[in-house]
């Protein structure tokens, strides 16, 4: 189960103490799944306070058709993020919460009491949230972020991946696989997750496993001709 804070500007209408249906909600459907716990909040910058106006429980999330059903309960309480976390509440409309934050804010108890269901107490809080759950290259990321799509070579195969800091990412991969990697090229993008999905799609016929590809010389040349992908 994920606990996700959603800014009130992203939810136009919600049924107080009832179920709301959202059609054509592509990004919302991409970000939430059945059983997720949602916090609808408004951010007050002067006091660095997240005012929680409703708690939601996702009853259905149809990513293919962009349809979401959410059971809402009206509440009223405040959260006060620390100096290291308030920027996320301030700057993002969609904020997955780490298990430590869920515990610190006492959210499992709040949800269990609000919905009168101990499933929140029994369920494990998932912290490995992936912002891009749908790899469809034609769908924008939930939270578009600037970064790079890189092309690296391990002596046998080429890796097409994404990173904000390529040098740091390369070091991490080298530790994981026990090999040195050569950086061949990088592509700048204003939505690097979507750009990665685009490049994976283009070279899907060369995929060996995961993000590792066997690229021919002409395919390498084509990749290296691309410097920017933007939407």
Describe this structure in words.
The protein has helices at residues 26-31, 86-91, 99-104, 107-115, 119-122, 166-177, 192-202, 217-224; strands at 3-7, 18-22, 37-44, 49-62, 67-79, 94-96, 147-153, 158-163, 182-189, 207-209, 212-213, 228-229. It starts with a strand and ends with a strand. The chain is elongated and about 60 Å long. The chain is of the alpha+beta class. The relative contact order is 0.13. Strand 7 (147-153) and strand 8 form a beta hairpin. It has two domains: 3-122, ph1033 like fold; 147-229. The protein contains eight helices and twelve strands. The model has no long low-confidence stretch (mean pLDDT 91). It is 27% helix and 33% strand. The strands form two sheets. It has a six-stranded mixed sheet.
Short description:
With 231 residues, the protein is α+β, with helices and mostly antiparallel strands. It is built from eight helices and twelve strands. It has two domains: 3-122, Roll (ph1033 like fold); 147-229.
Q: What is the CATH architecture assignment of the largest domain?
A: Roll
Termini separation comes to 32 Å
CATH first level of the largest domain: which class? Alpha Beta
Note the main sheet: 6 strands, mixed
Order of helices and strands: EEHEEEHEHHHEEHEHEEHE
Q: How many discrete domains?
A: 2
The value of Rg in angstroms is 20 Å
What strand order characterises the main sheet? Answer: 2-5-4-3-1-6
SSE blueprint:
Blueprint: E1 3-7, E2 18-22, H1 26-31, E3 37-44, E4 49-62, E5 67-79, H2 86-91, E6 94-96, H3 99-104, H4 107-115, H5 119-122, E7 147-153, E8 158-163, H6 166-177, E9 182-189, H7 192-202, E10 207-209, E11 212-213, H8 217-224, E12 228-229
Parallel strand pairs: 1-3, 9-12
Antiparallel strand pairs: 1-6, 2-5, 3-4, 4-5, 7-8, 7-9, 8-11, 10-11
